[in-house]
Amino acid sequence: MHISTSLWTWLAAALTIGVFSFLYKDNPFYRFVESLFVGVSAGYSVVIITANSFIPNLWNPLFKDGNWPYLVPMILGLFYFAMLSKRFAYLTRIPFAFMIGGGAGLALPLAFQTNVIEQVKSTFLFNPGYYKSLGAFIDAAIIFIGVVSILLYFYFGRKRGTKLGLMPRIGVIFLMIGFGASFGYTVMARLALLIGRISFLLGDWLGIIR
Questions:
Q1: What is the spatial distance between Cα 59 and Cα 37, in angstroms, rounded to a whole number?
Q2: Which of 43, 123, 126, 201 is the most exposed place for a label (fewest CB within 10 A)?
Q3: CA distances to 116, 119, 140, 141, 160 from 136, in Å
Q4: Residues near 19 by Cβ (< 8 Å), separated by ≥ 6?
Q5: CA distances from residue 187 to 17, 67, 102, 199 in whole angstroms, order as listed
Q6: ∠ CA 76-79-80 to the nearest 5 degrees?
Q7: Looking at residue 131, what is its pLDDT?
Q8: pTM of the model
């Protein structure tokens, strides 16, 4: 076993163990590591946003190129600091309104195109002659059955007197498969992070594994 003598390796190992210490109970070491992580992330984000967004998109066009219409977004951005004052806190509603309105205007058409139009298009293309292989046809059939059964479950599944047979129940199965796959992917991603940190501790730090 060869324990690393690198200062940065020891520091990374100490911070990793500090995070894992929460598995035992909440403690000052964990709270210190948590605060350090949040602080470093916030500082790094400020530097990146300043270098990649503020300077090229506002400072240079306004003060170097003389594009004075950029004063409007600068003033709106300064209004965010009004939340530090109880007297002028209401001014923060103005940039929030522009941000939410503009964001909704940009996001809604894209979301509608992606989640509604493309979904409906893929469902309506359920044509046996359209697909070149049996596997592609089976995939399209599963998508078609899933979309129709889930829609029938949400719209008609709880109405009395509606006779739709097994379709709403099939919709529930598709929903459970979708939720289970999402949860499984989340667990797998977290386990990958855990395995990476354990490999670091046992390999780079302690030298037990190679």
A1: 29
A2: 43
A3: 21, 16, 6, 9, 37
A4: 30, 33, 34
A5: 21, 49, 35, 18
A6: 110
A7: 65
A8: 0.66
